[in-house]
Every structure is written in structure tokens, then in C-alpha cells.
Design brief:
Helix content: over 70%
Shape: globular
Strand content: under 5%
Number of helices: 3
Number of strands: 0
Structural class: mainly alpha
Low-confidence stretches: none
Length: 75
């Protein structure tokens, strides 16, 4: 493995095992997680922490959707 290369096989395995390769299913669960974060008690996380977590989850969702679109365009 190249020193700067990231091994994404565990993530790919997760998609296959938990979502049967359905990336849209995964994005729906991310949406639910983001939605639920807004209903945690306000003293659980600071507003900045909540925004940062939502931002990371949204970025992950966008990356997965991009993969999904590119995958379908090549098919």
C-alpha cells in the first residue's frame, strides 16, 4: 500500500453488507441522522459542534451521491 493511499475497503464492505450496495439507502439514513441531531437537547452539543457534525454528514452524503450518479452514467 502506498503511504498516502487510503484503504476504503472497509467502507465498501459496509455499503455491501448493510445497504446491499444501495447508496441511496445510505444517503437516506444520513438524512435521518442529520434530522435527528436537531432534536437533541441543546446542552448536548454546542451550536458550532452541531453545525460541524451536520456539515460533515452532508459532505459525506454529497460524495456518495456523486459516486452513485457517476456509477449510473457509466452503466
Amino acid at each position: 500500500m502506498i503511504p498516502n493511499e487510503i484503504n476504503l475497503l472497509p467502507l465498501l464492505s459496509y455499503f455491501e453488507n448493510c445497504h446491499e450496495g444501495d447508496l441511496l439507502s445510505f444517503t437516506q439514513w444520513l438524512d435521518k441522522a442529520i434530522y435527528m441531531l436537531h432534536y437533541l437537547p441543546t446542552d448536548t452539543f454546542s451550536e458550532t459542534e452541531r453545525q460541524n457534525v451536520c456539515y460533515v454528514l452532508m459532505e459525506l452524503k454529497e460524495a456518495v451521491l456523486k459516486i452513485h450518479v457517476e456509477q449510473n452514467n457509466c452503466a
